Amino acid sequence: MNLTERIAYIRGLAEGLKLDENRDEVKVIKAMIDLLEDMAYDVVEMEEVVDEVCNQVDEIDEDLAEVEEDIYGDDSGYVTYDKDTDEFSDDEAYYEVTCPACDKTTIVDEDALIEGGLDCPYCGAEIEFDFSELNEDIDALEEADKKADTKAEDKAEDKAEEK
């Protein structure tokens, strides 16, 4: 039995008791039954609205899945957006960046990384990219390459002098 059927059953039981309708207790019982009936109809209406919203959410989810597939493509590599052609391609890498303020993820291109930061499109907080450690590692590698080149040149000179 659904709610409205159960309320109708209770109303029938109350009417079957043939209570004196002039008594205060009977008036309270009838008012409670009327209230339950109104609440049952409201619940039924809400269930219908929830079902409709769930169907709309399912449709949105399907549409979003299609958009995600168009944007991200398959999992074979990076997908990028070309501003000039207004199309996505696999030529250039985009990167996912998480905002430290709102913890939402956005996609940025290499230009944004090179510029050193951007404003979060969700909360407006500044997202900064710090490559100082990476730059230090690159500097150390370059210095090691220079030393290796110098040693190789010195060895070549020593061999040339020996001849």
Tell me what the structure shows:
The chain is of the alpha+beta class. Helices cover 61% and strands 12% of the residues. The chain contains 4 helices and 6 strands, in the order ααββββαββα. The strands form 3 sheets. The protein has a two-stranded antiparallel ribbon. The protein has a two-stranded antiparallel ribbon with strand order 3-4. Strands 5-6 form a two-stranded antiparallel ribbon. A hairpin with a 6-residue loop joins strand 5 and strand 6. Helix 1 runs antiparallel to helix 2.
Task: Describe the structure using short key phrases.
163 residues, alpha+beta, two-stranded antiparallel sheet, 4 helices, 12% strand, rod-shaped
Major sheet = 2 strands, antiparallel
Q: Give the helices and strands as they follow along the chain.
A: HHEEEEHEEH
Strands side by side in the biggest sheet: 1-2
Proportion of helical residues: 55-70%
Task: Name the poorly predicted regions.
Answer: 75-80
Measured distance between first and last alpha carbons: 107 Å
Basic shape: rod-shaped
Structural class: alpha+beta
Number of helices: 4
Round the mean pLDDT to the nearest integer and report it.
81
Percentage of β-strand residues: 5-15%
Radius of gyration: 36 Å
Tally of DSSP β-strands: 6
Topology at a glance:
Blueprint: H1 3-16, H2 24-72, E1 80-82, E2 87-89, E3 95-98, E4 105-108, H3 110-115, E5 117-119, E6 126-128, H4 132-162
Antiparallel strand pairs: 1-2, 3-4, 5-6
